[in-house]
């Protein structure tokens, strides 16, 4: 069939498409040194029925190409009901994947993940709040692609890395107002009030909370009755393991309120992943009892040549948390609260960012960078935008010298309102009966 002469727009879209066979060949070449074995185990004890988890072992960057398989593990610790945790479990992954352009090679795909995670978290929060329900949830979301681990988190669930050799490090940042000074300052600057619960006589008890609402976390998904300065923008950390592999322990605060990170790693060393998850839960219950929902996922990332899982034996007695060091491949994180790691050569840091400012997290793009996101889609909800309909995420006051409203990414009007509310630029908090 002859092509018509007036299909310039169609030709542009056709040229952006990459044939499946070409993608598969590209993936096969890049995957040779990236093969890993991933084994996992889950364990849980329920107190309130608000913990949920997600395990997906059959995700593919390129549909129909088994060599592009990646793994997803996530924990959602709900509060004020379980609706937000269930909604995030069922929708967050698809929202993240929807924010990644098609036709990317592996390295481009991995590079696009941090931004897509931010967009996916915000879209999930926005959609859940539209339901008018007041529950909320933490979210710790882990994507494993070969030796590369990408972790996005809001709240106080946690993911630790126990690298072969016995080194333990945090891949998440706790967003508890009690411990996180930077988050307290951000919440109060955006219009929230931080303080403890007052009882009769003016006595203050319990952890620091944000008012209205009384939430002790500064970031979550949901919580529409608290105020939109409680943001869903995740801390994201992306690292690449050496080919010796390592173990991840992903758990809700029912574990971490009972066990320090190193204790959790030590108590299950030498055990296969399934038994290790059970042992971590058992140790937490032995230490503190069942005072909260307690959920743990253990994931082992193993070189393919290992026919037997070689896990590190318990190290000699130590009272201090051993930390790994990352070789920097990108600029230093602005989030100084993240654990700094010290043993160079075990893990390479690819990316880390914890800012709660959406413009910083979505970055800049020009017409030359359209391969990472369409200029005609909202960067958050992915709704199609008519020409000149979108509002730049960088648009601000006309008196601002840093504002670049002609640069993308762009937001639809609804997502721009969401951005402004999270930054305290309009009244926030939804009145609910």
What radius of gyration results from the CA coordinates?
22 Å
Sheet-strand content, in percent, reads 15-25%
Indicate the structural class.
Answer: alpha+beta
Helix run count: 10
CATH architecture assignment name of the largest domain: 4-Layer Sandwich
Q: Please provide the ordered H/E string of secondary-structure elements.
A: HHEEEHHEEEEEHEEEEEHHHEEEHEEH
Q: What is the percent of helical residues?
A: 25-40%
Relevant CATH superfamily of the largest domain:
PPM-type phosphatase domain
Keywords: Hydrolase, Magnesium, Manganese, Metal-binding, Protein phosphatase
Cofactor: Mg(2+); Mn(2+)
Catalytic activity: O-phospho-L-seryl-[protein] + H2O = L-seryl-[protein] + phosphate; O-phospho-L-threonyl-[protein] + H2O = L-threonyl-[protein] + phosphate
Domain PPM-type phosphatase: 29-301
């Amino acid at each position: 069939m002859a092509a018509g002469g007036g299909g310039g727009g169609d030709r542009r879209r056709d040229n952006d498409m990459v044939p499946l066979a070409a993608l598969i060949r590209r993936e096969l070449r890049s995957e040779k040194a990236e093969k890993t074995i991933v084994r996992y185990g889950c364990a849980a004890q329920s107190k309130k029925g608000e913990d949920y988890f997600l395990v997906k072992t059959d995700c593919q960057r390129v549909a129909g190409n088994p060599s592009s398989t990646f793994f997803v593990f996530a924990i959602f610790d709900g509060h004020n009901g379980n609706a937000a945790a269930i909604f995030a479990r069922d929708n967050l992954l698809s929202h993240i994947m929807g924010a990644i352009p098609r036709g990317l090679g592996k390295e481009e795909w991995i590079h696009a993940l941090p931004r897509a995670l931010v967009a996916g978290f915000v879209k999930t929060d926005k959609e859940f709040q539209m339901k008018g329900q007041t529950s909320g949830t933490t979210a710790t979301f882990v994507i494993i692609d070969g030796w590369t681990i990408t972790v996005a988190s809001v709240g106080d669930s946690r993911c630790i890395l126990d690298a072969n050799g016995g080194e333990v490090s945090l891949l998440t940042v706790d967003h508890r107002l009690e411990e996180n000074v930077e988050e307290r300052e951000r919440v109060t600057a955006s219009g929230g009030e931080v303080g403890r619960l007052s009882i009769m006589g003016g006595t203050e008890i319990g952890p620091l909370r944000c008012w209205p609402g009384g939430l002790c976390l500064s970031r979550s998904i949901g919580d529409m009755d608290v105020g939109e300065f409680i943001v869903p923008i995740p801390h994201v950390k992306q690292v690449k393991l050496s080919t010796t592999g390592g173990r991840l322990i992903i758990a809700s605060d029912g574990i971490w309120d009972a066990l320090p990170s190193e204790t959790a790693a030590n108590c299950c060393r030498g055990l296969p992943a399934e038994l290790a998850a059970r042992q971590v839960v058992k140790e937490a219950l032995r230490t503190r009892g069942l005072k909260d929902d307690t959920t743990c996922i253990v994931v082992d990332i193993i070189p393919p040549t290992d026919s037997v899982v070689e896990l590190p034996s318990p190290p000699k007695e130590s009272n201090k948390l051993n930390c790994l060091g990352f070789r920097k491949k990108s600029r230093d994180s602005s989030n100084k609260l993240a654990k700094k790691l010290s043993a160079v050569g075990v893990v390479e840091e690819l990316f880390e960012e914890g800012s709660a400012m959406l413009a910083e997290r979505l970055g800049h793009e020009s017409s030359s960078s359209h391969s990472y996101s369409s200029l005609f889609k909202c960067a958050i909800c992915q709704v199609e935008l008519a020409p000149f309909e979108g509002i730049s995420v960088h648009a601000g006051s006309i008196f601002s010298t840093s504002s670049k409203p002609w640069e993308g990414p762009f937001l639809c009007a609804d997502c721009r309102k969401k951005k402004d509310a999270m930054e305290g630029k309009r009244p926030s908090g939804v009145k609910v009966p």
